[in-house]
Design goal:
33% of the residues lie in helices and 25% in strands. The protein has 19 helices and 27 strands. The chain has a seven-stranded mixed beta sheet with strand order 2-6-5-3-4-9-8, sandwiched between helices. A seven-stranded antiparallel beta sheet has the order 20-21-24-25-26-19-27. Strands 11-10-12-13-14 form a five-stranded mixed beta sheet, with helices on both faces. The termini are far apart. Bound molecules: alpha-D-glucose-1-phosphate-6-vanadate and cobalt (II) ion. Cobalt (II) ion (CO) binds at residues 113-114, 277-279, 281-282.
């Protein structure tokens, strides 16, 4: 088997976004496109000869083909060993777990997360470092820089490696070890939570439904919820991973997780419902006819962390992305622990967790996690909730409303406008930036603008600075509107508008978030000229 050096020309668009490089499958299928990016990763990280890598993905269309290319390129680039999930599958949190457990040099995760899959859908690739977390900006910038000057890549000329059988084979001198995709992760979960208490809860008639959305979490949910915890077999919906996610959009929210939503809002609804996304790092939590906002979920988990064995001694601190509501800030204040505000994207939490500054972190985009791995973790969040419920024995809705009664409610919603023309979206953001000085002090109905800024973050651990991470309009009463453009889309631009108001009046805690935020929604339009600029009357998705 010989190492081939293939000449290539750089692509100019291989810039990793919020979470790796995401493009249409057809883009990745273009000659040399995947190979160029993989070689750029290998060149940028400069791993020592003989290093070990983890490779796995969410099973979407093109996962298998891409893994074969990566294995052959890893062998040609001097890696000594690659750990691959069986059939090429590893959820994002499971990949993080495996990188950490086996102390590998890093890992490559193939996923476009919640984006649709299939031949016409999306594909993605990202690099995680030895701590198990997404590569920090310093590394992704190095990969991008390399991708713009690359002239050749290395690959061995060899037959494909069989990935369906556990065990180790050799590929041009490199070991390929096919590992059970679920076992290490399931073992980690068992070490964190009170499985006995959850088993008792489920045996007591407490009914749950978990929607795997035909994505990667099906086998994980079956192994943990059904086999280990005794949930009924039909507790896991859409449990078989499919390369096109059954034609669905594997995004756990009220719009896309419709099978679950119908059940949880129907007659005879179960007590607890949850869903995860394409790669298993997101979670949505539902009670009977009740939706838990991700920002509230993080706050509630922080407030109740001591009920979970792994966090029984208390948590060191919490972190949330800037657009995430300040609900967790109030809990941190009560617990007298630090609360960090980071830019959007999990890569910004890694340093804080490595330094022991935070234990729990989360994002409004259905992401919660802890320092057990360095990715957000969907099933972990589900188990965290089940652990709390097993001890508290209250309905989800009661638990949340009692939380609001104690801490106040951060009424919250995100409005997404997908697939806008990029120039329209950019002009809208520029317009808001240009309005900063005139906005300050201006009154809109009940709200007066206190300050406006472009969010910048200085990492307290390594001092790195990230600019332009979202435009914020902050009101005198603590309410706010944040505007940001997505860094994970593959078509046009997606505008995200994050709306938040703080409500201490308990009599208003039952209001629907859209009603409670109606005035803020109008103000967002007034400030941006959104409807006129985009010609859209409604957001594409409301969460
Ligand atoms: C979105 C979310 C962000 C999340 C990212 C990756 O990014 O808003 O909070 O970290 O997706 O999640 P953006 O740039 O589109 O707003 V996942 O589950 O796609 O890895
Ligand atoms: Co995801």
């Amino acid at each position: 088997m010989s190492i081939q050096t293939i000449s290539t020309k750089p692509f100019q668009d291989q810039k990793p976004g919020t979470s790796g490089l995401r493009k249409r499958v057809t883009v990745f299928q273009a000659a040399h496109y995947l190979e160029n990016f993989v070689q750029s990763i290998f060149d940028a990280i400069a791993a020592p000869a003989g290093a070990t890598l983890v490779v796995g993905g969410d099973g979407r269309y093109y996962n298998r083909e891409a893994i074969q290319v990566i294995l052959k390129m890893a062998a040609a680039n001097g890696f000594g060993k690659v750990l691959v999930g069986q059939d090429g599958i590893l959820s994002t949190p499971a990949a993080s777990c495996v990188i950490r457990k086996y102390q590998t040099y890093g890992g490559i995760i193939l996923s476009a997360s919640h984006n649709p899959g299939g031949p016409e859908g999306d594909f993605g690739i990202k690099y995680n470092t030895a701590n198990g977390g997404p590569a920090p900006e310093k590394v992704t910038e190095g990969i991008f820089a390399r991708s713009k000057s690359i002239s050749a890549y290395k690959i061995v000329d060899a037959a494909d490696v069989a990935l369906d059988v556990l065990g180790t084979t050799e590929l041009a001198g490199m070991q390929v070890q096919v590992i059970d995709a679920v076992a290490d992760y399931a073992e980690l979960m068992e070490s964190l939570f009170d499985f006995a208490a959850i088993r008792q809860l489920l045996a007591s008639g407490f009914r749950i439904r978990f929607d795997a959305m035909h994505a990667v979490t099906g086998p994980y949910a079956r192994a943990i919820l059904v086999d280990k915890l005794g949930a009924e077999a039909d507790a896991v919906l859409n449990a078989t991973p499919l390369p096109d996610f059954g034609g669905g959009h594997p995004d756990p929210n009220l719009t896309y997780a419709h099978d679950l939503v119908e059940i949880m809002y129907g007659a005879d609804a179960p007590d607890f419902g949850a869903a995860s996304d394409g790669d298993g790092d997101r979670n949505m939590i539902l009670g009977q006819r009740f939706f838990v906002t991700p920002s509230d979920s993080l706050a509630l988990m922080a407030a109740n962390a001591r009920l979970v064995p792994a966090y029984a001694k208390g948590i060191a601190g919490v972190a949330r992305s800037m657009p995430t509501s300040a609900a967790v800030d109030r809990v941190a204040e009560e617990l007298d622990i630090p609360c960090y505000e980071t830019p959007t994207g999990w890569k910004f939490f890694g340093n804080l967790m490595d330094a022991g500054k935070v234990t729990l972190c989360g994002e409004e985009s259905f992401g919660t996690g802890s320092d057990h791995v360095r990715e957000k973790d969907g099933l972990w969040a589900v188990l965290f909730w089940l652990n709390i419920l097993a001890i508290k024995r209250q309905p989800v809705e009661t638990l949340v409303k009692r939380h609001w009664a104690q801490f106040g409610r951060n009424v919250y919603s995100r409005h997404d406008y997908e697939e806008l023309p990029s120039d329209v979206a950019n002009a809208l953001i520029t317009h808001v930036r240009d309005s900063f000085t005139t906005l300050v002090g201006q009154r809109f109905g009940n709200y007066e603008v206190k300050t406006c800024d472009d969010f910048s973050y200085t990492d307290p651990v390594d001092g790195s600075v990230s600019h332009k991470q979202g435009v914020r309009i902050l009101f005198v009463d603590g309410s706010r509107i944040v505007f940001r453009l997505s860094g994970t889309g593959t078509e046009g631009a997606t505008l995200r508008i994050y709306l938040e108001a703080y409500e201490t009046d308990r009599t208003k805690h039952d209001l629907d978030a859209q009603d409670a935020l109606a005035e803020m929604i109008t103000i967002a339009d007034q400030i941006t000229g959104l409807k006129q600029r985009t010609g859209r009357e409604q957001p594409t998705v409301i969460t």
